[in-house]
Design goal:
globular, two-stranded antiparallel ribbon, 58% helix, Leucine-rich Repeat Variant, 4 domains, 521 residues, mainly alpha, 29 helices
Length: 521
Amino acid sequence: MISEMKKSISVSVLLGTEHSPGKITGAVGKLGEMFRLAESPEKEKEKEFLVSASMAALYIKSGAGPVKSGKHEIKVSADEKKPECSPASSSFLARMLSGEHPEILEEWLSLLKKSPCRAPTEYVVRLLETGTSHRNLRQMISLSLGERGAWLASLNSEWSWVCGEVDDSVDWQTAGRPQRIAYFRRLRSTEPAKAIELLTSTWDDEVPEDKVEFIDATAAGLGPADEVFLETALRERRKDIRSAASSVLCRLPDSAYCRRMLERLGKIISYTPPPKTSVFNVFASKKGTFDLKLPDAPDAEMGKDGITPKSHPEGTDFNGGEKAMIVFQMLMIPAPSKWCSIWGGTPEDLIASAVQGEWKDLLMEGWTRAAATHMDEAWARAILSEKKWISGHVRHIPALLAAVKDREGFALEMLSSVSGDNASSEIVQILGACDHSWSEDFSRKVLKIIFRLIPKADWTIGSFLGKASLQISPSCAGDVARYMADLDLEKLIPSMRKLLENFTSKIQFRREMHDAFNSMA
């Protein structure tokens, strides 16, 4: 009865009374009589529906029975194993939870994790509420709560994400969605094969949205043993599931999926290396040439692998026609190092040959995406060193620089050669790729660049200050203060002054927060 009433109410709410019966069905007895009394003689369907819905809501609410306590005994929380952090450290937590620089909370949690302490009990509920609305902080918050926090989370279904992070006794068949996904992610980092075994046992019963999230989670601990499962997911009917599977499969450079792409591309792209230098051709070109024979249309097998003429991958500058787009989608999948083996030559040789030909954009865009996917440092460095091309495609700098181990050193090399009208944008892209906590030396060199551009009212740099304030070493707070003292703030527009004040405030806040944790050691 109640479920039928809820269903009919939902239909009318979604479709409106003009496009639905506008009647609440399923009511019997006295409630049914009340519904009949609510019928409007003027046939005003909206009024009749709203009156009936109000009565149905009261009926459903009044019919709810109390939870039986016999089957839901509440266990007592275990004793705490860690002490609370110091009052000085917790004061920064209180300020952030009250709205002051909340974006620094992740750093506070990281500092707490490195210490032998836990978050103060009085802030546990607010941390749980924060984790519920900020998925990216859940794991760090789970580790900060202590025994009482984990116990409290077990009593509220909205906080079930904590149980998934700290509880190893999850019943895979009956656990709730947040618990199962959290448990799967954790298991992938320790026993990836067991995680796939569990997922396979319930795969056919999973809803599409969960399938996508589970597939994304297989990226952790990814290995050749996962290929069979991912190939199965690649044959799913839903496009979003197939897309998720292909994005993970392409990270396995020796997978059958990548080999299929190489085989297809081998029939499309041909490379002629430069002629060997001799006394007879001393002035011949030192670069090779590429030739492409574009396919008319993707065949059925290509379609199964997610290659379609109308697909346009996100995050790319390539805008070729449908035939070229088919080639591009395939080229971004195999590891670019495979081409060095197939054609011979270094990444620099192949790139130098590509940028002078008619297929420059297709080849460079495809290799760029592949280099970022496979974290191929040699190719990433080679593409980033192709100054003319990369200066026109600055959006790719962060993904490529992420593949370079000495990011700070290579970033400084790139920064030293930046010039031209697009300089600020390129600088921000380079620094944006260094998304780690910056070393003190790197921070000082970056601060010098930032404060050189600030007097020019450079908005590209100004908008980057918020991000930079979270990554600059807090030990450089004194350097920031000196730079600020040398600035003529009166010559800056008010909005730029406000950005600088916030920048300075955050770095000082972080410096004092680090000092508070260091004093606990």
